Amino acid sequence: MLYFIIRRILQIIPVIIGVTLILFTLMYIIPEDPAKLILEKGATPEALQNLRGKMGIDKPVYVQYWRYIKKLAKGDLGTSYRYRRSVNSILADHYPNSIKLALAAIIIEIIIGIFAGIVSAVKKYSFWDMLVTVSTTIAVCVPVYWLGMMLQVSFGLKLGWLPMSGMGDGSIRYYILPAITLASVSTAFVARMTRSTMLEVLSNDYITTAYAKGLSTNMVIGKHALKNALIPVVTLIGMDLGALMGGAILTETVFNWPGVGRTIYLAILQRDAPVVIGGTIILVMIFVVMNLIVDIIYALLDPRIRYEKKEIQI
Amino acid sequence: MAETENNKILEVKNLRTYFYTDDGVVKAVDGVSFDLKKGETLGIVGETGCGKSVTALSILRLIPEPMGKIVEGEIIFDGKDLLKLGQKELQNFRGNRISMIFQDPMTSLNPVYTVGNQVMESLVVHRKLSKEEARRGSLKLLEMVGIPEPKRRFASYPHEFSGGMRQRVMIAMAIANSPSVLIADEPTTALDVTIQAQILELMDELKSKTNSSIIIITHDLGVVAKYANRVMVMYAGKPIEFSNVDNIFYKPMHPYTIGLMKSITRLDEKNRKKLKPIEGLPPSLIDLPKGCIFRIRCKYAINQCKKEYPPLVEIEKDHRVSCYRAKEFMDGILERFGN
Lengths: 314, 339
Ligand SMILES: Nc1ncnc2c1ncn2[C@@H]1O[C@H](COP(=O)(O)OP(=O)(O)OP(=O)(O)O)[C@@H](O)[C@H]1O
Ligand SMILES: [Mg+2]
Prior knowledge:
The structure holds 2 protein chains of 2 kinds.
Chain A lengths: L1 H9 L1 H18 L4 H5 L6 H11 L5 H13 L13 H36 L4 H15 L2 H15 L13 H31 L2 H8 L4 H30 L2 H6 L5 H10 L3 H29 L1 H11 L1
Helix pairs in contact in A: 2-14, 6-7, 6-9, 6-11, 6-14, 7-9, 8-9, 9-11, 10-11, 11-14, 13-14, 14-15
Chain B lengths: L7 E14 L2 E14 L3 E5 L6 H8 L8 E10 L2 E2 L5 H7 L4 E4 L3 H4 L6 H10 L6 H14 L5 H4 L9 H13 L5 E5 L7 H18 L2 E5 L3 H7 L2 E6 L2 E7 H6 L4 H12 L36 H5 L5 E4 L2 E3 L4 H5 L9
Parallel strand pairs in B: 3-8, 3-9, 6-7, 7-8
Antiparallel strand pairs in B: 1-2, 1-4, 4-5, 9-10, 10-12, 11-12
Helix pairs in contact in B: 4-5, 4-7, 5-7, 7-8
The complex binds adenosine-5'-triphosphate and magnesium ion.
């Protein structure tokens, strides 16, 4: 298991190199002069040239890249063109907010998604099943920003129950609307996946065995069916957590949430390459680490996988 | 324990279990009646799809609803009709007074829990036991069914067991609460021939130890001959002949049973499992024809067979047959094993 984890962590390195390479190329292709972004409009050509030299952007792109990688290895993500602050500190300011929001969304996803999925599988074709089917369809179809705005208008503006935007003092009230918005699509997917895997699991022989033992329906579903049904759902949720961490661009923009999604979004608009690249690298790392965690949970849930891994180790 | 009259432990009366599919109503079990005596082994035989498993599942009310439904009948166990029990009472019977072993040991155990956990569960669900007591009880059960090194195997997962070992675990779970009735639905079909014999011996041995009764469903007439006391032969959801083993093997009176018995002498050991000796296909259980269902494949069919289904009648003591011509076989007017 340890060997497996170490191997997976080492795998992050080529991924990071690939990602930086792509981003670097993209940012280089964009014909925008960072020096012009930083200095005032009327800056002299000498001043511009001077700054370019200081920033190192007068060098060929491969030299720039090599420098960037060297700094990256030390954990330095460079300096923002726009804010003249280190990218590390900008991201450090915003990442926690995004992670908190993502966690809030994941909690909604797990509780509501799995519960709805179980109910609709166990009570197949009932009113509740229909309700879940209809509401998940709506959740998937409705654009995220539209849902966010509708929630803002109804619960924030009309009813005045919840704050419309921002993080305020960081209390739970501020999280509710953006978290629901962020979680909506994934919750629908989790509910549907739970429903379908649950239905499949319920038709297995070991479920009949469990009933034949004299177990109650709650025990059969809660113990024997659920653990099997959750195996693929855990994968979905884990992958989603990785995606949510950075995929909150729309939600964070609509709700004016001071997170990294909104920061990257603004950085793209402002051609602030170091922030875009640095933010994306962290994003990718989180994604890869989340995948690793998912695999570990997966192995804990399913002994057959644990077994195979053991085999590979030897 | 108060014994019911005639020593009957279980009595199934006029059981009908239907499945409501898109193609129509499948009358999987359509008027099955039999009784099980204390300490006996009852064999149920018949071609694939004739309703053997559905009969077994109906006894424990394990028919998947709402697609399947027990539409009629009584299942009398210990003076109670199991079909009238509430969920809670029913759960008290399942796995406790009546248990079941299934055909495929590869899929009948839950892959994500240890074998020990699953055996323990069988005990704990019906008795108040401490964890330690349950553990000790389970180890004893695993030992009883011949699992080597039960202490070590306790923490293993089903995928680490062979098919035969898994079936032993299933048996351990089934006998955990010393049930009065053990229903085994083709318990050895999925296993190697050598393992088959071991499992059957084990079941037989445990039966005599605990004085329980067994219903064994099988395709294998050799198994029936060796272990069963009485046999019910089924065809298209109905019992067509029911008697003791000797009668079934040497004095069969239903043309279908006669065909089966003739086939044993023809087939070698390897093909014995395939119980399909008679020309023609078993009928679809949807839209069954009027009259005797077997008549299409029956060379003894007469006009009367088209009109009405022949009732299961006791043609001689403890020998019930559902055929208009049974008496002619009995009286020797018709030759059974000729040509
Ligand atoms: N869940 C179900 N839904 C619909 N039809 C079913 C279902 N279960 C069984 N049947 C039908 O009921 C009939 C009897 O099936 P059953 O499983 O009892 O046969 P069997 O005698 O046990 O056969 P085998 O020897 O192959 O195990 C079959 O025609 C089958 O198609
Ligand atoms: Mg069967």
